[in-house]
Protein: Palmitoyltransferase
Organism: Carassius auratus
Amino acid sequence: MKLRLHFVVDPMGWFCISMVLFVWLYNSFLIPKLVLLPHYAEGHIPAAVVAFYYLASLLCVSALFRASTANPGKLAQDPKIPLAERENWELCNKCNMMRPKRSHHCSRCGHCVRRMDHHCPWINNCVGEDNHWLFLQLCFYTQVLSLYTLVLDFCQYYYFQPLSSVDRADFAVLHELALLRGSCFMGLMMFGGMSSLFYTQVKGILADTTTIEKMSHLLEDIGPCRSWQQAMAEVFGTRWKILWFLPFRSRQPLRLNLTSRPHV
């Protein structure tokens, strides 16, 4: 798998993605050190609980890296337009380049993106045709990791057996603020925000509508409906559902024999 990295020069985007990485590092190191590893060492929890947390953390940061560095569908400077497809292309009035319909010019990145959904400062990248599937994975694995963190924080105080190697009063003084308040606050914020975002993204995919089209009302009457399997397969580039959850792969466009909803 050959990966080409795509970086956007935007100080605001760098700040936003740094905040996201801080939250991931905070929870990915704090929770195992204070909760998982001590309880595993004393035999209170099985190894699978620890392994699952590290797996969720790895998949989350992998999806973040891929979504932020993948080309979202940037158009070439001199695109070669097949004669049979010229009627599906239009001229961008901002960069004076020909682009396929449903493309959009991102003022933040300074170029047109095929089937652009929106520009996300939290990944410092556009979300377009070629990295939309990675953005969905990021939303999904962030929900999983955040929910798992909240469950572990709850279990630490109300379910797990007390640690014999740590004094309970000292633990409360040293780590309660960082663990119970800081970690829970971040987990609630990330889980709530990503759940809402994931819902709107999936809803837009099933309706064959991007966020920009929805906000600009650039759509006509609904055409033939697609099943959810067909809609998701087109975004992820494969009909194999198990591959929808793997960020460690490349995506090839999957053209379905369907008539999409007409867009203006």
Summary: Residues 257-264 have pLDDT under 50 and may be disordered. The helical segments are 11-41, 47-69, 132-158, 168-206, 211-216, 228-236. The first helix runs from residue 11 to 41. The chain has six helices and six strands.
